[in-house]
Amino acid sequence: MAENKKHIVKSKDFLFGTDDSDALLLDCGKKLHSVNIRYETYGKLNANGSNAILIFHALTGDAHVSGWHSEEDRKPGWWNDMIGPGKPIDTEKYFVVCSNVIGGCSGSTGPRSINLATGKLYNMDFPVITIADMVRAQRRLMKHLKVEKWLSIIGGSMGGMQALEWSISYPELTESIIPIATTARLSPQSIAFDWVGREAILTDKNWDNGDYTENIPENGLATARMLAHITYLSDESMRRKFGRNLQESESYSFDFKRDFAVESYLQYQGQRFVERFDANCYLYITRAMDYFDVSAKAGGNLAAAFKNVTCPFLVISFSSDWLFPTAQSVDLVKALLKNRIDVSYCEIESSYGHDAFLLEIEVLGKMISDFLRNRLEVIDGK
């Protein structure tokens, strides 16, 4: 449905853990007090509460999944083509919730938040968090919103990890799970990329053990982003977009300046990232991804990890995604099938690489729309 005007949304905040009994107990053994969750909602919860959908953002995303914050905004939310009135996840039909993860820098409590116990920024005093910790915080938000059960939990990339964690930690609280371009446990290759990105930040002369103020570790954070961004693309998409095209001249510089268009593109991505993301937050969130392995508590047995899960799954991968390749989604599907869980699976042909979950809206939207409609009909028909 074509939009005649911008759909304006407002971010909201939910604070909990102001006393010790309500603090968030983390996997590292520490407690997090005075936790703020920045979130946005779209649509309305229906009378029987059957239409609530929880959306998760990826590594550097935020709660602003759709719409605009003001008429002056130049860019809408990161999944605006997917979520909204008349769109695949139709906010005239569903009540949609998206929150910024703890450890982030877009409103939820993280390393650059004020530690009320000291009156100073947490920085590296912030406790190390996990994907399961993020999910526990989101469970608190669910209670705050008076949602008794999610119709579906949907996420791509790191968001898909959170969706999988929800299915295991709170199997009774969701009617379906849609993990997209994700994995049940981070591979050694992905851990290696995260390590190099963090090393770029940690060795930046401005990092100052995380206590930077005016002179932020721009070079390190930009380099980490450039490295990560390469993993989000595919060889085919980079060849189509850039080839070996030169950027600023018709011949090589015989120097170490930006000769190639792809070099300029990556530098631009790094510079833009520094403007909107925090270096310490990048350290913490990538570490949370490293630790993610839903099979860990089941002795490494992926099928055993899902033994208490009963809800249907729609698992989606992309043919050119080499960060979280199709084989990892297939492993997940096999583990679910061993538990006789209702699973629909599709590998979507795409040249966009890992970023396809943000770009292949037409085919992805149709699949998700149909799946959600069928689930809602089943629930409301009970």
Walk me through the structure.
This protein is α/β, with parallel strands linked by helices and 382 residues long. A hairpin with a 5-residue loop joins strand 2 (24-25) and strand 3. The chain has an eight-stranded mixed β-sheet, sandwiched between helices. The chain is globular, with a radius of gyration of 21 Å. The two termini are 31 Å apart. Helix 1 (131-144) packs across helix 2 (158-169) and helix 3 runs antiparallel to helix 4. The chain is built from eleven helices and 14 strands. The protein folds into two domains: 12-185 and 294-380, Alpha/Beta hydrolase fold, catalytic domain (Rossmann fold, 3-Layer(aba) Sandwich), CATH 3.40.50.1820; 194-284, Rna Polymerase Sigma Factor, Chain: A, CATH 1.10.1740. The longest helix has 20 residues, at 361-380.
Write a concise keyword list for the protein shown above.
2 domains, Rna Polymerase Sigma Factor, Chain: A, 15% strand, eight-stranded mixed beta sheet, alpha/beta, two-stranded antiparallel sheet, Rossmann fold, 382 residues
For the largest sheet, list the strands in their spatial order: 1-4-8-5-11-12-13-14
Mean pLDDT: 96
Write down the overall geometry. Answer: globular
What count of domains describes the coordinates?
2
Class inferred from helices and paired strands: alpha/beta
CATH topological fold name of the largest domain: Rossmann fold
Overall CATH class of the largest domain = Alpha Beta
Q: How many DSSP-defined strands?
A: 14
Give the fraction of residues assigned to helices.
25-40%
The name of the CATH superfamily of the largest domain reads: Alpha/Beta hydrolase fold, catalytic domain
- Name the helix and strand elements from N-terminus to C-terminus, one letter apiece: EEEEEEEEEEHEHEHHHHHHEHEHH
